[in-house]
TrEMBL record:
Species in which this protein is naturally found: Musca domestica (House fly)
GO MF, one example: calcium ion binding
Cofactor: Ca(2+); Mg(2+); Zn(2+); Mn(2+)
Record EC number: 3.1.1.17
Annotated catalytic residues: 270
Full protein name: Regucalcin
Cofactor binding summary note: Binds 1 divalent metal cation per subunit.
Binding positions for a divalent metal cation per the UniProt entry: 70, 216, 270
Family membership: Belongs to the SMP-30/CGR1 family.
Length: 359
């Protein structure tokens, strides 16, 4: 284990402790195909400073790869993790007790931005599909999920929004859906055509925020009455005062800035979650890292490192809500193990139960 130079608060050592290759030989028509190697990586990380010492493990979920994994949602009742592969319209379910991942293609859909179970059902989910939010029926096992209906559609009647899609979505503790759009063809930094929406039980939809580049991470703290939101193209996390009775967010301020000295080095904040102490966990799409941040001070309490670059989102789960599940991406030719979904144990933190959607 290495130690910090004087004056540095935390050291994170993140090299691979366990690395192995799973080899698959595929035979077709009695002709052997070339050997294919798939890299599977686990980490054991030791953190040490003058006043602090801990270890945590980063381990892959079995057969969990997604080209653009996103939107993790932990279902407390079923003890499973739902997430999506955005650009192919697939939804996933990791069963904690079986230690197995099931996946399904949504019938006649090519996009799936998020997945959230619907309150009062066992097989219905709200899914962001293009500029629509649809209700999907799935038993959690079958390879195909069916569309039951369209709940609502946004940004209609304006050609600027034709190439927009829903990205991240999550429910506040009262079951209101917050979900945002982004331009997925072209430059999202130049064309800020996205918007953040709120859907309330009964069908009321309203715009929370316009002028959004890439709508991303969402989190709430009922104790402090705060709402946290990420627009990736702003390179920061904003905190809002939040009225849980009305669902209104006001008075934004920056609590975590990911800009560096040079614009090419800016980190891209992606998905986000929160623990019971009010610390936020910010995934970075270009940084191999989830930052654990105290939003009261903006201080980084821990850097959680991964063996791939594009870290997309996170959610606490497991029987005690003390396992951090993390989705990643293998876009733009990122090598294995990019796209793997991970579980992180030993963090010494617990998350809050995620809320199902009230329709």
């Amino acid at each position: 284990m290495l130690r910090l130079p004087s004056g540095k608060p935390i050291l994170v050592l993140y090299f691979v402790c366990c690395l192995w290759f799973a080899r698959q030989i595929v035979a077709e028509n009695n002709v052997d195909e070339p050997l294919v190697e798939k890299v599977v990586v686990s980490l054991e990380v030791h953190v040490n400073s003058e006043n602090f010492s801990m270890s945590y493990k980063v381990e892959p979920l079995p057969e969990s790869h997604a080209e653009l994994g996103e939107g993790p949602h932990w279902d407390v009742e079923r003890q499973c993790l739902y997430y999506v592969d955005i650009h192919v319209g697939k939804i996933y379910r990791y069963d904690y007790n079986e230690d197995k991942v099931y996946k399904a293609q949504i019938e006649n859909e090519t996009l799936a931005g998020f997945i959230i179970p619907i309150e009062g059902t066992t097989n219905e989910f709200a899914v962001g599909a293009g500029r629509r939010v649809i209700v999907v029926t799935w038993d959690g096992v079958s390879p195909v999920a069916k569309v039951k209906k369209t709940l609502f559609e946004v940004q209609q009647g304006d050609q600027r929004f034709n190439d927009n899609r829903f990205n991240d979505g999550k429910c506040d503790p009262q079951g209101r859906l917050f979900a945002g759009t982004m331009k997925y063809v072209g430059d999202e930094f130049e064309h800020r055509y996205g918007e953040l929406y709120k859907y309330e039980k009964g069908g009321k939809v309203e715009v929370v925020k316009s002028d959004v580049g890439i709508s991303n991470g969402l989190a709430w703290n009922e104790k402090t009455k705060k709402f946290y939101y990420i627009d990736t193209t702003d390179y920061e996390v904003k905190e809002y005062d939040y009225d849980f009775a009305t669902g209104k967010a006001t008075n934004p301020k920056v609590v975590f800035n990911l800009r560096k000295n040079s614009p090419k080095d800016h980190l891209l904040p992606d998905g986000m979650t929160i623990d019971t102490d009010g610390n936020i966990y910010v995934a970075t799409f270009n940084g191999h890292t989830i930052f654990k941040v105290d939003p009261k001070t903006g201080n980084v309490l821990l850097e959680i490192k991964f063996p791939c670059k594009q870290i997309t989102s996170a959610a606490f789960g497991g029987p005690n809500l003390d396992i951090l599940y993390v989705t990643t991406s293998s876009r733009f030719g990122e090598p294995d193990p990019a796209g793997t979904t991970y579980k992180v144990t030993g963090l010494g933190a617990k998350g809050l139960p995620m809320t199902k959607m009230q329709v």
